[in-house]
Amino acid sequence: MKLMFLGAPGAGKGTQAEVVSERYNIPAISTGALLREAMANGTELGMKAKSYIDGGALVPDDVVIGIIKERLVADDCKNGFILDGFPRTVAQAKALDEMDIKMDGVVSIEVEDDAIIRRLGGRRLCGKCGSSYHVDYKPTAVAGVCDKCGGELITRADDKPEVIKSRLDVYHEQTEPLKDFYAAKGVLKPVIGQEKIEDTTALTIAAIESIRG
Ligand code: ADP
Ligand code: ZN
């Protein structure tokens, strides 16, 4: 099964992708996480991406398309995968088409802008393994410490208020048109993002089950 999650930054794509990945035993592939990993490792790619990401802009299409191409040929993608945060532009979506990758379902998580702004401010990330948390909605057992690996939690540079605003603008301008793109292919599954993560998960699973038939 090939799935994609669309949604504004902070809509909960990554959180839902993690849950769905475990449930269906297919990898969740996040271009954001791959880029942050490259940044943490100080690779050439990471250094190139940093200024875009920290400023709330999109990394150039050719860079992320290259990353995704490399990742999707890995063995663990044979039985399907979940794309989280890719594509983010029509050009990226067309690149998937050119790779002959047909999505079975595109889950679009719908959340209002004001809720997004409240959420992103409380978002925390494990500096070691990349797991995501939220101080109110998904707290760790021990404050500031990752449940999975014991790593220290950090706040992303791009979760600063002024950067959040530009990320939302970018989303509405460049990524939201993908809803029409995939609706035209008949694979779009809108899911209204709920206050509680489990409630969004239930709606997400229902949408995916409707695809599997
Ligand atoms: P969020 O969905 O909360 O914005 P991500 O981790 O998906 O978080 O992305 C963080 C940043 O990484 C984006 O703001 C962007 O700069 C960059 N990025 C991630 N995926 C892409 C992509 N497909 N195309 C361009 N830039 C990307
Ligand atoms: Zn961790």
Q: How would you describe the overall organization of this protein?
A:
This protein is an alpha/beta fold and 213 residues long. The chain has a single domain, classed as 3-Layer(aba) Sandwich (Rossmann fold), CATH 3.40.50.300. 47% of the residues lie in helices and 15% in strands. It is built from nine helices and eight strands. Strands 2-3-1-4-8 form a five-stranded parallel β-sheet, sandwiched between helices. The radius of gyration is 16 Å and the shape is globular. Adenosine-5'-diphosphate binds next to helix 2 and helix 3.
- Secondary-structure element series: EHEHHHEHEHEEEHHEH
Helix percentage range: 40-55%
Question: CATH class, anyone?
Answer: Alpha Beta
What does the radius of gyration come to?
16 Å
- What's the N-to-C terminus distance? 12 Å
Second rung of CATH, namely the architecture: 3-Layer(aba) Sandwich
Question: Which ions, cofactors or small ligands are bound in this entry?
Answer: adenosine-5'-diphosphate, zinc ion
Low-confidence stretches: none
CATH fold call: Rossmann fold
SSE layout:
Elements: E1 2-7, H1 13-24, E2 28-30, H2 31-40, H3 44-54, H4 61-72, E3 81-84, H5 90-98, E4 105-110, H6 113-121, E5 123-126, E6 132-134, E7 153-154, H7 161-175, H8 177-183, E8 188-192, H9 197-212
Parallel strand pairs: 1-3, 1-4, 2-3, 4-8
Antiparallel strand pairs: 5-6, 5-7
Bound molecules: adenosine-5'-diphosphate and zinc ion.
Adenosine-5'-diphosphate (ADP) is lined by residues 9-10, 13, 30-32, 35, 52-53, 57-59, 64, 85-88, 92, 158, 167.
